[in-house]
């Protein structure tokens, strides 16, 4: 592949250099371009968080308990799995992901150029991406990602010069949810183009180092010449209609009706059996999730003991409790978070305390969700009662009392 495929001179002020995030050729191209152009500034496809992690070789502090309480374990797991996949591809070809950005920073300092961070905050990107997915799309996405981790097909890195590794993965995501790709690629193209236009008012010449898959999108936006509304691209909109919460409260109402019906039957044996069924089914499946995540005995026990209650309360997830207990037992530190970047196998991920806590919370929630539906079926089957008929008769008897 020749240089013109990965380099675009927009005008005398902005030069785009497209890179594959796992290619040695990209690193050399970045170095040569900056040395030959001697720009006033070098813009890189990083935000502050990723810049800090790359330069200082460590991630910024993340409170695992806060992540669990915010219900964002799935988001962080997704981000970690993406990073792991990218790292595995780079390792195969002897390149560290982000090495081309480090080279850009190094050479920029050599020529006395300022360093500009032009990408959107990664957490905002993932939140906007995640919120655009339906529940089914989220499940499909995780399955697709996990399958890709074990996929043995050879990858041609030169082909990744046409679209960087994240973009290549996004093309797979597009099959699952075409609209969701907007947050991962198109919005970032717009955001980075906007930042470049802003900076071009201060600098005479900028070399921008971005993933190859972003070059065309950024180029099109730059040709428009108008700075987009960047603040709008930083908003994480909360949907007025939350399907997960709606389902949660619907289940709560349905289960409440079932248990009220059982209580109204005044059959002590039936009431006790219904509670035992509900307790055991929810507890066993939630504990099984924690066990599969290789949680501590205390985390597994907490999942078992509290699942019946959390299944009745849509505001609290079983994984919150087991995850927080796991965090208390394992006590993951910033060192564990740093070690995630060194994971070379699935075993390395599973042995990491930080990742383990996330997995315990996620799989406990999954077990609890399955347990709730099976529990409802079991209790209904046990009672053999027509709930509607019982409520009608009870109300009628109260009226005629």
Explain briefly what this protein structure is.
This protein has 401 residues and is mostly helical.
Which features would summarize this protein structure in a list?
five-stranded mixed sheet, Pheromone shutdown-related protein TraB, 64% helix, TraB_bac, mainly alpha, TraB_PrgY-like, 401 residues
Write a structural description:
- The protein is mainly alpha-helical and 401 residues long.
- The model is unreliable at 1-5 and 154-163 (pLDDT under 50).
- The termini are far apart.
- It is built from 18 helices and five strands.
- Helix 6 (122-131) packs antiparallel against helix 9 (181-199), helix 11 packs across helix 17 (353-383) and helix 11 (243-264) packs across helix 18.
- Helix content is 64%, strand content 6%.
- Strands 1-2-5-3-4 form a five-stranded mixed sheet.
- The protein has two domains: 3-234, no CATH class; 243-399, no CATH class.
Low-confidence stretches: 1-5, 154-163
Globally, the shape reads elongated
Total beta strands:
5
End-to-end C-alpha gap: 88 Å
Radius of gyration: 26 Å
- Strand sequence of the main sheet, in spatial order? 1-2-5-3-4
Sheet/helix structural class: mainly alpha
Number of helices: 18
SSE order, as H and E?
Answer: EEHEHHHHEHHHHEHHHHHHHHH
Number of domains: 2
């Amino acid at each position: 592949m020749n240089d013109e495929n990965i380099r675009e001179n927009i005008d005398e002020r902005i030069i785009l250099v497209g890179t594959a995030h796992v290619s040695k050729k990209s690193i050399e191209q970045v170095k040569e371009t900056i040395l030959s152009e001697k720009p006033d500034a070098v813009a890189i496809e990083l935000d502050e968080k990723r810049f800090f992690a790359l330069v200082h070789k460590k991630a910024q502090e993340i409170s695992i308990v806060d992540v669990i309480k915010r219900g964002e374990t799935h988001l962080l797991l997704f981000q970690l799995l993406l990073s792991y996949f990218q790292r595995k591809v780079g390792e195969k070809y002897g390149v560290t992901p982000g090495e081309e950005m480090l080279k850009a920073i190094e050479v920029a300092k050599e020529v006395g150029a300022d360093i500009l961070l032009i990408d959107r905050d990664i957490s905002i990107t993932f939140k906007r991406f995640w919120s655009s997915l339906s529940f089914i799309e989220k499940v499909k996405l995780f399955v697709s990602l996990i399958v890709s981790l074990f996929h043995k097909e050879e990858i041609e890195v030169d082909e990744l010069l046409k679209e960087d590794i994240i973009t290549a993965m996004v093309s797979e995501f597009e099959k699952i949810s075409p609209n969701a790709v907007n947050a991962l690629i198109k919005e970032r193209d717009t955001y980075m183009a906007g930042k470049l236009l802003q900076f071009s008012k201060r600098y005479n010449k900028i070399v921008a180092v971005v993933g190859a898959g972003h070059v065309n999108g950024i180029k099109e936006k730059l040709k428009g010449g108008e700075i987009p509304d960047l603040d709008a691209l930083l908003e994480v909109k909360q949907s007025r209609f939350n399907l997960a919460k709606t389902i949660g409260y619907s289940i709560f109402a349905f289960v409440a009706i079932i248990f009220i019906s059982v209580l109204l039957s005044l059959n002590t044996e039936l009431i006790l059996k219904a509670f035992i069924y509900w307790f055991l089914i929810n507890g066993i499946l939630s504990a099984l999730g924690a066990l599969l995540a290789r949680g501590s005995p205390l985390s597994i026990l907490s999942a078992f003991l509290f699942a019946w209650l959390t299944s009745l309360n849509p505001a609290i997830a079983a994984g919150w409790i087991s995850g927080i207990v796991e965090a208390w037992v394992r006590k993951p530190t910033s060192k564990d978070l740093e070690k995630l970047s060194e994971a070379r196998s699935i075993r390395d991920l599973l042995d990491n305390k930080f990742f383990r806590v996330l997995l315990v919370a996620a799989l406990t929630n999954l077990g609890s969700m399955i347990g709730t539906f099976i529990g409802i079926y079991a209790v209904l089957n046990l009672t053999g009662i027509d709930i509607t008929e019982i409520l009608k008769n009870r109300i009628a008897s109260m009226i005629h009392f």
